[in-house]
Specification:
Number of domains: 3
Shape: elongated
Keywords: Amino-acid biosynthesis, Branched-chain amino acid biosynthesis, Isoleucine biosynthesis, Transferase
Pfam families: HCS_D2 (PF22617), HMGL-like (PF00682), LeuA_dimer (PF08502)
Helix content: 25-40%
Catalytic activity: pyruvate + acetyl-CoA + H2O = (3R)-citramalate + CoA + H(+)
Strand order of the largest sheet: 1-2-3-4-5-6-7-8
Strand content: 15-25%
CATH architecture of the largest domain: Alpha-Beta Barrel
Domain Pyruvate carboxyltransferase: 5-267
CATH class of the largest domain: Alpha Beta
Organism: Paenibacillus vini
Largest sheet: 8 strands, parallel, barrel
Length: 539
């Protein structure tokens, strides 16, 4: 049987030290529940008493009855004091947690400069603090801050710190690459030395990504004897971040044969990573290994042709194992295989020998040349493919729209849109205000359609992006607008391109609602859904 490892998630503590990341108590509780469902073994909740959010978190998390061990973070007692009287240690005990993470100095340089005390007093601070927490029945994880830098500067003292922590009863001795500057071969060699000296405590590893080596260093430590891996979801953390558990977990389990999570839990990895990203309101890189939307995306026609025969030709694992999925992208590099794969994925019958297939490939390449990008706008692509296949009916006919934007001194800008459509032969003319031109257009269009299509009440815009395609023309440059919309169950993206940002926005907006309306019909009942709603739209 393969060796079991322990996953220690510090997203809620170390992860929140990353720039741009701020979590409320409610946010932290939601993430804690999600991490528990994933199956991590320890969840570090924060620093008890340091702020009102952490105080509230530790109080409310007890009500969740999580399987993971909730852990409180704190430092050793102050120099020249008594552990029993240390306010920080008392707050850790009062947090009501099952385990504590105690950070202490292991680099003599830090003992002298940061603590401004002696090496002997630092050892006493570590021993006293751990022994006190153990007497209170706590599981203690000792985080040796700057351990690798300390070892390289003074190996005898760094090892003495770990021996003193073990002597005091620490359950785990965690080696921290706090500055993130250690190389993988150094990590392996140093962990191997410590592993040969430890008898009762177990070893953990905590790495930072300042050299883009946090994941590699964590794996090197495991190979040398570490059994607990500390890290964060999506690699969040101070400076360049912490070790990314979204990469570490599948690497250890799928590539190296360690027991980390149950297979059904591993399937939750992608969903958990994206959930945490949404709650933290932090952009998740599409090319993030294992869990990114592009992790199993294929664009080149030769690649797509190969994966349709056998996905192992260009995929190192089956993406569903980690809860992700294979995606075929359609762009100017697309060949017939890409179109056929996307059509199959969308349930659209496409004959590879049919002239319409070759025509839509040519059309997509031409549109990409104009600035359209369908890699991130699957809904617009699906509308194109269904139009080419003759599978769409006319839902409404665009006639015109007008915009009024008024700015008066001392008053906010007022945007008003006027939209004229035909639905079932009847002319519909509506007007609506919004907090901007696009919002006003959205409101006016919905106002015209809502009587005929009440399901639009469930749809809302969740994201809006504008990209300048050629900045040499300054304010006259062509722009690409991407709109993400969602309902209670799904989200979809649409694209528009124009030299006028309002026209590009209208195009993406109309595609978004067209797609939503089609989604409300039976997916198998697409016959004769042909649209002339594009109006201003060029494709």
């Amino acid at each position: 049987m393969s060796k079991a490892l322990s996953i220690f998630d510090t997203t809620l503590r170390d992860g929140t030290q990353g720039e741009g990341i701020s979590l409320s108590a409610d946010d932290k509780l939601k993430i804690a529940k999600k991490l528990d469902q994933l199956g991590v073994h320890y969840i570090e909740g924060g620093i008890p008493g340091s702020n009102s959010k952490d105080i509230e978190f530790f109080k409310r998390v007890q009500e969740l009855n999580l399987s993971a061990k909730i852990t409180a973070f704190g430092s050793t007692r102050r120099k020249d004091s008594v552990a029993e009287h240390d306010a920080n240690l008392k707050r850790m005990l009062e947090a009501g947690v099952q385990a504590t993470t105690l950070v202490g100095k292991s680099w003599d340089f830090h003992v002298y400069t940061a603590l401004q005390t002696t090496l002997e007093e630092n050892l006493a601070m570590i021993y006293d603090s751990i022994a006190y927490l153990k007497r209170q029945g706590m599981e203690v994880i000792f985080d040796a801050e700057h351990f690798f830098d300390g070892y390289k500067n003074n190996p005898e003292y760094a090892l003495a710190v770990m021996r003193k922590a073990e002597e005091a009863g620490a359950d785990w001795l965690t080696m921290c690459d706090t500055n993130g500057g250690t190389m993988p071969h150094e990590v392996h060699d140093i962990v191997s030395v410590l592993a040969g000296q430890v008898t009762t405590s177990r070893l953990g590893i905590h790495t930072h990504n300042d050299c883009e080596l946090a994941v590699a260093n964590a794996i090197s430590a495991v190979r040398a004897g570490a059994e607990q891996i500390q890290g964060t979801m999506n690699g969040y953390g101070e400076r360049c971040g912490n070790a990314n558990l979204c990469s570490i977990i599948p690497n250890l389990q799928l590539k190296m044969g360690y027991e980390v999570l149950e297979p059904e839990q591993l399937k939750q990895l992608t969903n958990t990573a994206r959930y945490v990203s949404e709650i933290a309101n932090v952009y998740m890189p599409i090319n993030q290994p294992y869990v990114g939307t592009a992790a199993f995306a294929h664009k080149g026609g030769i690649h797509v042709s190969a994966i349709l025969r056998d996905s192992r030709t260009y995929e190192h694992i089956v993406p569903e194992i980690v809860g992700n999925r294979q995606r075929v992208l359609v762009s100017e590099l697309a060949g017939q295989s890409n179109i056929l794969s996307k059509a199959q994925e969308m349930g659209i019958p496409f004959d590879p020998e049919n002239e319409s297939t070759r025509a839509v490939i040519s059309k997509i390449k031409d549109l990409e040349h104009q600035g359209y990008q369908f890699e991130g706008a699957d809904a617009s692509l699906e509308l194109l493919l269904r139009e080419a296949n003759g599978d769409l009916k006319e839902l409404f006919v665009f006639e015109s729209f007008k915009m009024l934007v008024e700015k008066s001194a001392g008053r906010p800008v007022i945007s008003e849109a006027f939209v004229k459509l035909k639905i079932d032969g009847a002319s519909i003319y509506t007007a609506a205000e919004g907090n901007g031109p696009v919002n006003a257009l959205d409101n006016a269009l919905r106002k015209a359609l809502i009587t005929y299509y009440p399901g639009l009440q469930e749809i809302h815009l969740s994201d809006y992006k504008v990209r300048v395609l050629d900045d040499k023309d300054a304010t006259a440059s062509k722009v690409r607008v991407l709109i993400e919309s969602r309902n209670f169950e799904n989200s979809w993206s649409t694209v528009g391109v124009s030299g006028n940002v309002i026209e590009a926005s209208w195009e993406a907006l109309v595609d978004s609602l067209r797609y939503a309306l089609i989604g409300q019909t039976k997916r198998e009942d697409y016959t004769e859904i042909q649209s002339s709603t594009r109006g201003l739209v060029n494709h």
